[in-house]
Amino acid sequence: MLKVGVIGLGYWGPNLVRNFYHHPEVEVVAICDLNPANLQKIKNKYKDIPICTTNYMEILKNDIDLVAIATPPETHYSIAKNCLLADKHILVEKPFTMSSKEGEDLIKIAEKKNLKIFVDHTFVFHPVVRKMKEIIDSGELGEIYYFDSERINLGLLQKGVNVIWDLAIHDFSIISYLFPNLSFVKVQAFGSKHIHPYYEDIAHVILESKDGFIAHIHVSWLSPVKIRKTIIGGSEKMLWWDDIHPFEKLKIYDSKIEIDFSKEDPFHPTYIKGEITIIPVENYEPLHKEVDSIVKSIKNNTKHQVDGYEGLKIVKILEACNKSLLNNLKVKL
């Protein structure tokens, strides 16, 4: 049995406890949170977890294989480092770290100790994202032109990061998974602070690649309605993902524009609007798949899809967004 400890039982930690607890090859042996009420709530639900503490260093003294870290982002580096130094594999909630320097340091320690780093980019394991990759890889969409995402809601404002680090990070991880060979060369971020005293609560991010592919991401904590939609446009067809829709989440639009450049006056485009196909998608909890993949990676000593290097890649994009916001310019990646 893989022995697991979870540090941080606020918003996301209880989900980690639940999924690890119910995995047949895992034993959750320790939980930790600074708030005794959070600890007691989990202890009441999972009465056989033996170690419950407000001091995470107590967890590290025990025989534990993996520590899952679901604490505020600014604490990730120090906690993760201590876990690695105590010879524990780590799963770190997004964002991996608050700087690329911190991420590089953790990777260096893990490699020296032959330990694994997992970064909790849960959307990589989402059934719709998996189906989207299958469709993109099949070539059905043709040449991919753009990725356009809107991820907005009323809150939840975060204490230690801006809305890009909180929400757009999901889209960065999705893009990285869908297009692993895509290399962005520039990023520009626009944002403003209205309610949050320190950080941007609404933002737009534009990522540019060498071959003309562009990604636009709109994120906000200040929307009266919750919207989670993504469009991926190709030369032949287009994908639409509405994560809020109860059952018609993914559609393919057989829509495109054709121009006959052989004519003397070619600019008389033909607008083709064909069938709309609703794509059936499996129904499962992404975190369940993620936890299972982590367990398999440790047991079989195999490379994981979202390791420290993948987490670092996303942190570098986030850093570039911060630089762009600060200086109001495009930043090279």
UniProtKB/TrEMBL annotation:
Pfam families: GFO_IDH_MocA, GFO_IDH_MocA_C3. It comes from the Bacteria. InterPro entries: Gfo/Idh/MocA-like_OxRdtase_N (IPR000683), Gfo/Idh/MocA_Oxidoreductases (IPR051450), GFO_IDH_MocA-like_dom (IPR055170), NAD(P)-bd_dom_sf (IPR036291). Residues 2-121 form the Gfo/Idh/MocA-like oxidoreductase N-terminal domain. GO terms for molecular function: nucleotide binding. Residues 129-236 form the GFO/IDH/MocA-like oxidoreductase domain. PANTHER family: BILIVERDIN REDUCTASE A, GFO_IDH_MOCA-LIKE OXIDOREDUCTASE N-TERMINAL DOMAIN-CONTAINING PROTEIN. This is Gfo/Idh/MocA family oxidoreductase. It comes from Desulfofervidus auxilii. The lineage of its organism: Bacteria, Pseudomonadati, Thermodesulfobacteriota, Candidatus Desulfofervidia, Candidatus Desulfofervidales.
